[in-house]
Amino acid sequence: MPSRQPLPPKLRGGPFATADARAAGVGEGRLRGPDLDRPFHGVRAPVAGAAPANAVGLPPGFPHPGRFPDARAAEEFALLAARCLAYTVILKPGQFFSHLTAARLWKCPLPEWFARNEPLHVTTTRPSRAPEGAGIVGHQIARDRAHVVDRFGFPVSDPAATWLALAPTLGLDDLVAVGDYLVFDPAVLDPHDVRPHTTLAELAGRIAVPRSAGSPAAASALPFVRQGAEARTESLLRLVLVRAGLPEPELAVDVYDRDGRWLGRADMLFREWRVITEYDGEQHRTNSAQYERDEARIEGFNRAGFATVRIRKQHLFVQPRIAVERVGRALRDAGWPG
Q1: Chain center to CA of 261
Q2: Which of 26, 54, 108, 226 is most exposed, with minimal Cβ within 10 Å?
Q3: The pTM is what?
């Protein structure tokens, strides 16, 4: 049985344009080989597993993407990066990743996970036509409205532009959660992905530009965006509580006992009434070390006289009324007059 013709060295190990392959003498039969995927029209890439990858599934040489909240998020990003890398071989000058694709490249918390068949959003500036083709959602924008930066080697709409572009399609609460994420300034910086990605002032400034796409929805969400929410679930829980008439909590607060000893960081603190609200996420089920640390931290809060209310996934997403009742009861017991 004849062996498969090897590709020219410059085409090995990553995606390439079929036009480049033909120019290098590669025939049509070889381009239809079973070892090559066809992610987009005019693009070939090694089938999954045919090319080496690093520990998180990213191609060799890909910039370090920084930390992820869990293994699934890292895997999702690797799938997305592979799709974007494949498209960059035919990306034209002036084109860039935008909308949902840009949000994923910024690692925004979104209601749905990335899927292999999810199309990429690609924007171009006028007068060029919006990109077309299977697996692509094309957009067109005026040149002075294009705010493009480098993100892991990709041309991507900047965080504020990305947030505005999401506004027409995301619900209010999820748009707030993405805004919270983009303005969050973590206590411990990730050297590979420095934050905050933008500021409340920058978001407000973009909304103020006349006829900006997404401005009405974004203007409705901006008053609820806060600096301090560390996770989408914390943003959603805060909105549930405040919308029900409970007071506004402080977010990501360092808590100390009466002698000034640091007890830990609370998700939400109602300082006047010494009530803390914590969201118990999936890590408490899957990471025993994290579970033990959180148990010790919350025990310290309780010993220092803080009432700690722990909210689980069921309460937030299925029975939010119970979350409101539990936090409201703790506040009233502590003297809140509401």
Answers
A1: 34
A2: 54
A3: 0.91
